[in-house]
Amino acid sequence: MRFQTKTLAATAALCAGLFAAAANAQTLRVAHVDPDDWTGSKKGAAAQIFKNIVEGESDLTVELFPAGALGNEDELVSQAQDGLTQVVLVSGAMSKICPAASVLDIPYTFSSAPLAWEVLDGEFGDALAEHCLEQTGLRTLAYGETGFRNFTNSEREIRTPADMEGLKFRVQPIPLYIEMVGALGGEPTPIAWTELPNALSTGVVDGQENPVGVIYNNGLHKLQQYMTLDGHVYAADFLLISDEFFQGLEPAQQEVIQKAAIVAGNMGRSIQQWNTAEGVTKVQDEGMQVYSPTAEELQAFADAAQPAVVSYLREELGDDAEWIDRLQDAVAAASE
Questions:
Q1: Distance of CA 249 to the CA centre of its chain
Q2: Is 256:51 a contact under the CB 8 Å cutoff?
Q3: What DSSP state is assigned to residue 68?
Q4: Are 138 and 178 a contacting pair, CB within 8 Å?
Q5: In a 10 Å sphere around its CB, with 0-12 CB exposed, 13-18 middle and 19+ buried, how is residue 77 labelled?
Q6: pLDDT higher for 4 or 21?
Q7: Model pTM?
Q8: Distances (CA, A) of 2 to 9, 15, 91
Q9: Which of 64, 97, 201, 243 has the fewest CB atoms within 10 Å of its CB?
Q10: Predicted confidence (pLDDT) per residue in 33-92, tens digit
Q11: Residue 292: closest CA among 303, 304, 280, 283
């Protein structure tokens, strides 16, 4: 009888240990809309290295859902807020749930990627992350990179805003981009991404704007003759995690996830920089004319576009308009 009691007690203790281990051995669903190939996809590369580090240094399991397997960016953000997907990598969708993030899209704010990294990885980026956490319930673990956006067209070389007059440019259906292109003298035409190739090939629009890697990898350079490397908007990626899920983890697990996210963000940045450098060479080799504006020419673009966009954002953001000034101050400080 005494032996049976000891056996039952041991069995109960073993079961309790197994249940505890199962509770700690959680699975993180990580989703994004980019391809899975790490050599050509910044989000794909970031997600894969995040998985490797988390699984290698903790008892957590990571399941990847690339290429929009769980939906578009808006849907991924909603899933993360509902706790259905724990980690998401998104770019444009962030400003829809945290309007203050839209200040990062003010044209010609960042003169280089290292300047953007310094601002985002510093006090400004930390403060924006905390603000967006309060707004959304999603914690920004790190910032990645989608890259600088550039204009292309099929009509003529663009060196100044005056060269854009009369040209129709496809833009994302986002008011800020409509304001920007209109202020530069072009005719902004909102068109869904999936309809862009047909719009270019049929002449519905004369041009478009995207990062170099996106332009090359999607064959848009075959439908356009000219590219201007004006880098009008630096697009950041946000590595987000449900804060409710994050707070339920053990401190050691949280530490590993935070470390993995920072490495992942930097990995995404590196792949994006590689794709940009390689993409410029490739589009030129395939016949596209690429022009790099001078500092004076870039200033003319900034002088034309920034006032209109900043005025629009101040009205749109209301009390959050302070983030415009905070960003400008951070850029000025980092530039010194």
A1: 26
A2: no
A3: T
A4: no
A5: buried
A6: 4
A7: 0.90
A8: 11, 20, 63
A9: 201
A10: 999 988 889 999 999 999 999 999 999 999 999 999 999 999 999 999 999 999 999 999
A11: 280
- pLDDT of 25 reads 59
* Assigned fold of 2-335: D-Maltodextrin-Binding Protein; domain 2 (3.40.190)
List of E strands, 129-225: 138-153, 168-171, 187-190, 207-211
For the record, the structure tokens of 37 come out as 């190939």
Please list, in sequence order, all residues whose beta carbon lies within 8 angstroms of the beta carbon of residue 39, skipping any fewer than 6 positions away. Answer: 45, 271
Place of tokens 């910044």: 42
The pair phi, psi for residue 234, each rounded to 5°, is -90, 115
Beta bridge partners of residue 144, listed in sequence order: 237
- Residue in 161, 204, 166, 167 with CA at minimum distance from that of residue 183: 161
CA–CA gap between residue 112 and residue 304 (Å, rounded): 19
Amino acid at 84: L
When pLDDT is averaged across residues 219-247 and rounded to a whole number, the result is 97
In the chain, where are the structural domains located?
2-335
Count of CB atoms within 10 A of residue 266's CB? 18
Both tokens of residue 195?
């309809």
Where do the DSSP E strands lie in the chain?
A: 27-31, 61-65, 87-90, 138-153, 168-171, 187-190, 207-211, 226-242, 289-291
